[in-house]
Amino acid sequence: MLHTFVVHVEDRPGVLNRVSSLFRRRAYNISSLTVGPTDKSGVSRMTIVVETDQDGAARIEANLYKLVSVLRVENITAAPSVCRELAIIKVAAPAEARTELIHLVHVFRAHVVDVAPDSLVIEITGAEDKIDSLVEVLRPYGVLEMARTGRVAMSRGTGTPSNAKAAAAAAGAGDAAGGSKPPHDDHSVYSV
After folding, report:
1. Is the pLDDT of residue 83 over 60?
2. Which residues contact 192 (CB under 8 A, 6 or more apart)?
3. Is the separation of the CB atoms in 47 and 150 below 8 Å?
4. How far apart are CA 45 and CA 11, in angstroms?
5. In the prediction, which pLDDT does 160 show?
6. Under 8 Å between Cβ of 4 and 49
7. Tens of pLDDT along 99-152?
8. I need a surface site. Which of 49, 85, 95, 102 has the fewest CB within 10 A?
9. pLDDT the model gives residue 70
10. CATH C-level class of 1-79
11. Alpha helices, DSSP H only, in the chain?
C-alpha cells in the first residue's frame, strides 16, 4: 500500500540527503518525493510517498523522528487530505491535429502554456489518475517530453501545526495513562 508522509524539516544543506538515505538504508523505494518551502521561514515541507505496510509505515515515522533536522512527521494516508500533482507535457501538434488536441486539453481542464509550429506544451494539475488519463489520451499524438512533480499533499480541515500543540499535550497526558508520545516530542511541534 502507498503511504503518504508529510515531513517538516529545517531548511539546511544536507537534510534531503539524510532523509532519502534513511529510506535507502532500510531498503524502501520512494515512489514520489516533493520538497518546497513552507509559510514559516527556515522550514521546508517534504511530501514522501512510499510503498509499505502498516508496520513499515510506523517504523519509517519513528526513524524519521530520529533525524535531528526533522521537526514534525505526519502519515496522512488514512486522513482526509488533498493530494495534487503537476505535469507539463510537450506533445506533437501538427496543424491538422491541433484543434482536436486543444479540445482534449479543455476536457481535462488543463491549459496550453506554449504553442510552437509543431508542438504544444500542456500544463495539468490534479490527482495522479487524472494526469495518467491525459497522458494516455495524448500518447497517440506523440508525447515528446514530460515532467511531473510527484504528489503534494495536505490534510483537510483545521489540522495545522498550531493545533498539533493540543494533540501533543493530549499525548503527554496519555503518557501518564500508559499511552505513548512520538520520539523527539520537543521537535515534533513548532509554533507558527
Report:
1. yes
2. 39, 40, 160, 161, 162
3. yes
4. 9
5. 54
6. yes
7. 999 999 999 999 999 999 999 999 999 999 999 999 999 999 999 999 999 899
8. 95
9. 94
10. alpha beta
11. 15-25, 54-66, 95-107, 128-138, 161-176, 185-188
Question: What residue type is assigned to position 17 of the chain?
Answer: N
C-alpha cell at 22: 534513511
The one-letter amino acid at 109: R
* Model confidence, pTM: 0.73
Look up residue 98 and give its three cell numbers. Answer: 491541433
Amino acid making up residue 158: T
| Residue for grid cell 529545517 | 10
- Alpha-carbon span 29 to 82, nearest angstrom: 23
165 vs 170: CA distance, rounded Å: 9
- Distance in angstroms (rounded) separating the CA atoms of residues 91 and 161: 41
Domain ranges of the chain: 1-79, 82-152
Domains 1-79 and 82-152 in one fold: yes
